[in-house]
Design brief:
- The protein contains six helices and eight strands; from the N terminus they run E-H-H-E-H-H-E-H-H-E-E-E-E-E.
- It is an alpha/beta fold.
Length: about 210
C-alpha cells in the first residue's frame, strides 16, 4: 500500500549573523590558536541558535527560519504521563506515527528528563536505553527541550526538511572596524527548515 497524498512544504529563509570585534593589539599578541578559537566560537554560536530554533521556533529576535517543535499542532499525537515519563509512554507516542517513519527516529529530551527515563532500570528488570534502541529510536539530549517534555520524531529524511542557501561561514575583516583599531569576525548563514508534523509526537507530564 502506497501513500499517494502529497503535501506542500514551504521553506522560508532567514539570515543568522553573529559578530565579534577583537582588539587588533590583542589579536597580534595572542597565541597562534586564538583566531581559530574565535572562528570556532562564532560558528558554534550560529549552530546553537539553529538548534534552538528547531525546537522553540525562535532565533535571535524571533526571526526564525521555520516553525519549531514547540509550535507544531500535534492533535492526536500527544501522550500525557501522570507521574513520570516512561519508556511505555514513548512507545505509545511512537505508535502514533506512520509506520514507515517509526524506525530510525529520534527521542529528543533535555538531560534532566532523559535521566529520569533512563533511571527506570532501578525499578524494572530491563535497561530503558536498550529497549528504546530496540524500538528503532536514537536518544538525543537536547538542552533546548523543556523539562518534562519528550519529542518522538520519525525518520529525519521524511520529517525534517532543511535547506542552506548559504552555509555557515566566518569572515575576517581588517578594515570594517579600522577606526576602533579592531578586527571584525562575522559568522553568518541563510537557511530555512520545516517539520512534517504528521511524523512528530509528544510526551508531556500532567501538571
Amino acid at each position: 500500500v502506497y501513500d499517494q497524498a502529497l503535501s506542500a512544504i514551504t521553506l522560508s529563509g532567514a539570515e543568522l549573523v553573529k559578530l565579534v570585534a577583537a582588539s587588533r593589539a590583542m589579536v597580534d599578541m595572542s597565541t597562534d590558536n586564538f583566531e581559530t578559537y574565535l572562528i570556532n566560537l562564532l560558528a558554534g554560536e550560529v549552530l546553537d541558535v539553529l538548534e534552538d530554533s528547531y525546537v522553540t521556533g525562535k532565533a535571535g529576535t524571533d526571526n526564525c527560519p521555520g516553525d519549531g517543535l514547540d509550535t507544531l499542532t500535534l492533535t492526536g499525537r500527544t501522550v500525557t504521563a501522570t507521574t513520570a515519563i516512561t519508556v511505555a509512554d514513548i512507545a505509545q507516542a511512537l505508535a502514533m506515527l506512520p509506520a514507515k517513519v517509526q524506525r530510525g527516529g529520534l527521542v529528543l529530551a533535555n538531560a534532566s528528563t532523559l535521566a529520569g527515563i533512563l533511571m527506570e532500570k532501578t525499578t524494572y528488570a530491563f535497561d530503558p536505553s536498550t529497549t528504546l534502541q530496540s524500538l528503532g529510536l536514537e536518544l538525543v539530549q537536547d538542552p533546548h527541550v523543556s523539562d518534562n517534555t519528550v519529542y518522538v520524531v520519525g525518520a529525519l529524511d521524511q520529517t525534517l526538511f532543511l535547506n542552506f542557501w548559504q552555509n555557515i561561514n566566518v569572515r575576517r575583516s581588517e578594515d570594517a572596524m579600522l577606526v576602533k583599531n579592531a578586527i571584525a569576525f562575522l559568522a553568518s548563514c541563510v537557511c530555512g527548515f520545516a517539520w512534517n508534523s504528521n511524523n512528530v509526537a509528544k510526551v508531556t507530564l500532567s501538571a
